[in-house]
Specification:
Blueprint lengths: L1 E4 L4 E2 L5 E2 L4 E4 L3 H26 L6 H13 L9 H31 L13 H26 L12 H8 L5 H28 L5 H30 L5
Antiparallel strand pairs: 1-4, 2-3
Helix pairs in contact: 1-3, 1-7, 4-6, 6-7
Amino acid sequence: MAVDTPIPKTKNAAGATATPTPRTVVRPSSVTLKIIMAVSGILLILFLYVHMIGNLKIFLGGTDFDHYAHWLRDLGTPLLPHMWYLWIQRGVLTLAVLAHIYTAAVLTVRAKKARPVKYAHRPKVQGSYAARTMRWGGVIVLLFIIFHILDLTTGTVNPIGDHEHPYANVVADFAPGRWYVTLFYTLAIVAVGFHLWHGIFSAARTLGQQTEKGQRRAKTIAAVLSAVLVVGYLSVPFSVLVGLVD
């Protein structure tokens, strides 16, 4: 989308008024923004599932879990120096999160400008609860990402913070005495689940699933994928909380 910026008229050497060609500010179209949001969302979803599978290794015991964590740090060596893979991954994920937030914000603002007068009665939307919680869910998830980095990545707020023993860090993190951490973790993961559910369903409708049968199928797939993610992630803290993992 291009926006013409008006430029003040000037006078040439002969004293005549000259109107210069207006500068054009190029803005990405809504279609481009939706593509960026979709691609960034897919990257984040793939990471969440791979990360979940890695987290579930905690049920194999401390030795296996610690070995997996150390393997991630050495992934790519000797082609990449120690820890470089993780930092590259973090950089890509950070860009994906920022792109997802930015495109969502811009599209929301454009939608409001396109409809300056609010509806007297808001129509009920499929998956409306997830849709209404998308914004606040995103805030919760963003705060959780910051806490998660300070907790299990840098060890700043972790009771142990020992980089050589990730298993012990996780167990200490979700100990019964730190129930508030488990509660915050639960809220964040449930928010991710709702976000994923609404995102997958909306993407399916955008891609052409407009029939009643197609929408039912999309809702089922979105619900299953979201439920698997939520159960997979929450199984770790609650297993620590009840003593199945210690």
